[in-house]
Amino acid sequence: MIERLKKWFAGDGESPTQPDAHQLAVAATALMVQLSRVDNDEDEAELATIVECAARTHGIGPEEAEEILSDALAHASDATSLYQFTGQINDHLDQAAKQTLLKNIWRVAFADGRIDKYEEHLIRRIADLLHLNHREYMQARHRAEAQGG
Predict the structure, then answer these.
(1) Are 48 and 111 in contact (CB under 8 A)?
(2) What is the dihedral of CA 85, 88, 93, 94, to 10 degrees?
(3) What's the confidence (pLDDT) of residue 12?
(4) Quick check: 101 and 90 in contact, CB under 8 A?
């Protein structure tokens, strides 16, 4: 599976293929993983929130959500830029789905009880790369806060 995902992210020079739901889930989850690492303090609360968000958003069980997290952790470690994730998301998700993703990213940021300045900066960059405006950025933050982080 890892080889298939590497080919998908790298592109194989052939005609573009549609990513499956798992691949898009991995790309979205990798953004959350990147956020959890930006403050150099990836903790269990953040990882648990990522699994919960993946399960809820994709309508899957905890085991499959853990598998998505595992794949995302590997891809996030190998990533050279956020664009390799946001590019695929922009190509295949609508605006509402991208707003839900940003809300989930905010939930990960709130999971440890505080928002680090580096987390806030990275979320702003992700929002820009997802072509979400400031109003959508703030709505996602408020929705995440209302859900209790």
Answers:
(1) yes
(2) 90
(3) 47
(4) no
- pLDDT tens for 23-68 read 889 999 999 999 998 877 768 899 999 999 999 988 889 899 999 9
- Separation of alpha carbons 65 and 60, rounded Å: 7
DSSP 93: -
């050279």: which residue's tokens?
A: 80
Closest CA to 99 of 130, 121, 72, 53: 130
- CA torsion 13-16-17-20 (nearest 10°) is 100
3-state secondary structure 24-89: HHHHHHHHHHHHHHHCCCCCHHHHHHHHHHHHHHHCCCHHHHHHHHHHHHHHHHHCCCCHHHHHHH
